[in-house]
């Protein structure tokens, strides 16, 4: 009924989160089976610490189910620090013995799965036009950022402000506080530039895809983010988004774009066109369902392949 699930190793009224998660998923699927609506596939976004793996494996075997895992943030969360007494790693690797198929969000991780005999396909992040899209509104801010305040994010934002750039932030820890999810698209449209930060945690040179990469571009914003090589395979650099290696490049790129209204509009339009054409979850799952044989591939359709 709410966002997310219980944290696996935390106690809730004396019961570990992974137990509650496992109870919930088994109950929901069993109810479907009992009502003659047994699922063809169970799609999850989980790691080893999310569930009681052995219990789910037994339920899967008894029910004849197929499990697909969408491994977001897999570049850094494939293995996670795990207590020695735990049977399964807390990271994505810990759930591998349960999974029949993996959707991998960082391309090189596909090979990691295949080496362990887990079928896998590159499945980049995306977003939806039902949520993010261009709207006509006043541009209130030169640069906007949505995300928690910590580590390198604070350093970058402070550097931009010190360089004379008007930056508006939303999220835990920032002066304006948390923004409601349903207001994200409006905020992006109120910004001339949306700031992306592609680093993980407190790192400055370790990048990962972000949902923001696709949310901001779908909204028709000019998006400036870190030079994650994966984005160069999904967008045309300098035409559909701007990639930066360091703070100095962020400052110079943002100032240059803010001083060129024609270029700002062109990038905005191209960003939206690219993401709406190639980077929606409707497209991703259409291709996935074709791959799984749920959609008849002999019939013509208007989607282009990304998988």
Helix content: 25-40%
H-E string: EEHEHEHEHEEHEHEHEEHHH
Strand content: 5-15%
Strand order of the largest sheet: 8-7-9-10-11
Q: Indicate the radius of gyration in whole angstroms.
A: 21 Å
Let me know the average pLDDT: 92
Give the overall silhouette: globular
End-to-end CA span: 31 Å
List the helices and strands and how they pair.
Blueprint: E1 11-12, E2 15-16, H1 17-34, E3 42-44, H2 53-63, E4 67-71, H3 74-77, E5 101-104, H4 109-114, E6 120-122, E7 141-146, H5 151-162, E8 167-170, H6 184-189, E9 191-195, H7 211-218, E10 222-226, E11 242-244, H8 247-258, H9 261-278, H10 281-291
Structure, explained:
This protein has 307 residues and is α/β, with parallel strands linked by helices. Helix content is 35%, strand content 14%. The chain contains ten helices and eleven strands. The protein has helices spanning 17-34, 53-63, 74-77, 109-114, 151-162, 184-189, 211-218, 247-258, 261-278, 281-291, and strands at 11-12, 15-16, 42-44, 67-71, 101-104, 120-122, 141-146, 167-170, 191-195, 222-226, 242-244. Strands 8-7-9-10-11 form a five-stranded parallel β-sheet, sandwiched between helices. Strands 3-4-5-6 form a four-stranded parallel β-sheet. A hairpin with a 2-residue loop joins strand 1 and strand 2. The mean pLDDT is 92.
